[in-house]
Design brief:
- The chain is an alpha/beta fold and 572 residues long.
- The chain is built from 18 helices and 17 strands.
- It is elongated and about 120 Å long.
- The structure holds adenosine-5'-diphosphate.
Length: 572
């Protein structure tokens, strides 16, 4: 290396050091230091050391208890306000407190206690002529930030810098934590507000639907009376027009009924009445009733019913609604001359389940739409007024009702190649297992838990986080919840708190790898739960869920499935 390049290198290094130290100064420069020191010489020396490093730093020297107390505004009721007003750094009147340890009439330990009470955020450093290790450790335990021996004052500046840096970081963390708390409580508040508004809207829909239903029923009745000739003879044209009016009333009534059911589901007021019933008989009744409608479009509607289908526990009215909805859709979306087949059979390859399928030769459903058609208010826009009648609630209600029965619904379809809507219901009462909602942000674990629990016959739904889990619960109240604790956005403890607030005593299994942590403490504060430590083996998972199922007040659930009225979903 030539001497020139060496010089350049040195210059660069110097510059870099200069930049570094100015950056550090900028981060850690104290503006006001409080110095408790009874020796004037020592105070002068310390002030010099401080001002040599930070020339603009103001050093307030106090010599005894009185001076220290008034510097800390002890006894001044407006002190906290002053603390904030006087300092550029919130909560700190002084950036650092330096204190001797031994005084004739005061002690460093007392000064420390006072400082921790009146200036808890401010770093407190002892500067002492002699301080044994034991005393130093005790002082640190009592809240001192550090200590410097008077014969090693060269440490004062680095120790002060470090203390300031730590205090700044702590203050930044606390501010961030406060901001987090604030935004969490704002979020909680707006969630509450949204829920309240949602309830208001639901109540409004409910009232409106009822109010519309009464005059509509009366209009339909009078149309029927006139059509039956009870008000005198009708011309063919009059009959035709009245029949259109009656169809419109029927259509309107179906919309209102869907709306009412959707609000009932949302508010947990949809009560199911489970009784053993025959699915084949139910299907035969529906196809017989709907044949005229199909015939109007020259559609062949026929059913195929297996002989070995057992009676199953269901709410007949609601399953009739599901099948009728599927057949109505099939008629709507099948062109003239097509055919529709409704089949009831034991579910192929799925022991313990009965399957109903409605197949048509209609327009089919494009792949991209298939997952969405069960969503609330979703309709495929085909630009065809006849098929766009309705509110897009039909399939949503079908899915909710089937799932409330512990079943599942899906569609198999190809655009242009017809559609087959299939749903399965548990065949035997014993096969009706609890609905388990698993909330975990680990997608692989979620899949594994789903597999494990489904293989044992549980109806499993999953959610990849706390908010998603709460949304799922609003959709359908589960019998048992498996809940992870460490999750982003809203952790398990906070989710549990929400669950308890809105759903009361639904059984919760906390499934966590942090059985000792702070989250666990928080979770424990909000409610009792069953603990399952991660990692857990499939057998352990099943045993825990079974135990909870047995131990919990599942009488409500059992009663529902053994023929008595199911209580509303919102009932804890
Ligand atoms: P709505 O209550 O308005 O009839 P649904 O929820 O029953 O709505 O249906 C949602 C959408 O699913 C419909 O807009 C339609 O595009 C599609 N769909 C339903 N059944 C069929 C079917 N058998 N064939 C083709 N598309 C269908």
């Amino acid at each position: 290396m030539t001497s020139d390049t060496r010089e350049e290198g040195k210059k660069r290094l110097k510059n870099a050091q200069g930049q570094d130290s100015s950056k550090e100064q900028c981060e850690t420069r104290p503006e006001r230091v409080l110095l408790l020191e009874d020796s004037q010489d020592d105070a002068l020396l310390l002030r010099r050391v401080i001002n040599r490093e930070w020339p603009k730093c103001e050093v307030l020297v106090v010599q005894d208890r009185g001076g220290f107390e008034s510097a800390l505004s002890v006894g001044d009721p407006t002190a906290p306000a002053q603390l904030h007003a006087e300092s550029s750094k919130p909560g700190r009147k002084y950036d650092v407190i330096l204190s001797d340890y031994c005084f004739p009439t005061y002690s460093g330990r007392e000064a420390l206690t006072l400082a921790r009470e009146f200036a808890p955020q401010t770093p407190f450093i002892f500067i002492s002529g002699m301080m044994g290790d034991e005393i130093a450790v005790e002082c640190l335990k009592a809240g001192a930030t550090d200590y410097v021996l008077k014969d090693r004052l060269s440490r004062l500046v680095p120790v002060t810098k470090r203390a300031l840096k730590e205090a700044d970081e702590r203050a930044r963390r606390e501010r961030a934590e406060m901001a987090r708390h604030k935004s969490e409580s704002r979020l909680e508040q707006s969630n509450r507000e949204l829920r309240r508004k949602n309830e208001e809207i639901q109540n409004f829909y409910h009232t409106l639907s009822h109010e519309l239903k009464t005059p509509l029923t009366s209009a339909s009745e009078f149309i029927s009376i006139v059509m039956d000739g009870l008000a005198g003879p009708l011309t063919a044209t009059q009959s035709e027009y009245l029949s259109i009016a009656r169809d419109s009333c029927r259509q309107l009534r179906m919309c209102i009924d869907d709306l009412l059911d959707a609000t009932r589901l949302d508010t947990g007021k949809l009560a199911l009445d489970f009784k053993p019933a025959s699915l084949p008989a139910l299907v035969q009744r529906i196809t017989a009733a709907m044949k005229p409608q199909a015939t109007e479009k020259s559609i062949r509607l026929h059913e195929e019913v297996a002989l070995n289908v057992p009676l199953i526990a269901m709410d007949e009215h609601r399953i009739t609604q599901v099948v009728a909805n599927l057949v109505t859709n099939a008629i709507k979306f099948t062109p003239w001359g097509g055919s529709i087949q409704v089949k009831v059979e034991p579910a192929p390859g799925q022991a313990g389940l009965v399957q109903v399928s409605v197949s048509d030769t209609g327009c089919g459903i494009p792949r991209a739409e298939r997952d969405r058609i069960f969503d609330r208010l979703y309709q495929v826009r085909a630009g065809d007024a006849a098929t766009e009648k309705g509110l897009g609630l039909g399939l949503f209600l079908c899915r909710e009702l089937v799932e409330l029965h512990g079943g599942r619904i899906w569609v198999e379809s190809h655009a242009g190649g017809g559609s087959t809507f299939v749903f399965v219901l548990p065949a035997e009462q014993q096969a009706l297992r609890s609905n388990v909602l698993v909330i975990d942000d680990d997608p692989e674990l979620l899949e594994l838990l789903k597999l494990t629990l489904s293989s044992d016959g549980y109806n499993v739904r999953t959610a990849s986080g706390g908010w998603a889990g709460l949304a799922e619960m609003r959709r359908q109240r589960p019998d048992i919840i498996m809940l992870d604790l460490a999750m982003p956005e809203i952790d398990g403890a906070a989710t549990l708190k929400e669950i308890r607030k809105d759903w009361g005593a639904v059984p919760v299994i906390v499934h966590t790898g942090f059985a000792e942590g702070e989250l666990m403490q928080q979770a424990l504060e909000s409610s009792p739960f069953t603990l399952l430590a991660k990692p857990s083996r499939p057998q352990q998972i099943l045993e825990t869920v079974r135990k909870v199922e047995r131990a919990d007040d599942t009488t409500i659930w059992k009663r529902n499935h053994f023929g008595l009225n199911r209580p509303s979903k919102s009932q804890p």
